[in-house]
Amino acid sequence: MITLILSLIGVIISIWISPNNKIWETAIFQISIIFLFSCFLYSSTNNINWSHLSSLLIIDNISTPLIVLSCWLIPVTLLASINNLSKTNIVSQRNFISFNLIILLALIITFSAPNLILFFLAFEATLIPTLLLIARWGVQNERIEASYYFVFYTLISSLPLLISILIIYYNDFNINIISLNWNPSNIISPSLTLFCILAFLVKVPIFTFHLWLPKAHVEAPVAGSMILAAILLKMGGYGFIRLYQFFWESLTNNIAPLLIFYCCWGGILTSLICITQTDLKSLIAYSSVSHMSFMIANLATGTEWALSASIIIMIAHGIVSSALFALANIFYERSGSRTLLINRSLKAAIGLLPLFWLLFITANLGLPPFPNAIGEILAFSSILNWSVVSYWPIAIGVVLTSIFSLTIYQLLNSGWSHKWNVMRNNINERENLIITLHALPLIGLIFIPNLITY
Question: Is-above-0.90 flag for pTM?
Answer without folding.
Answer: yes
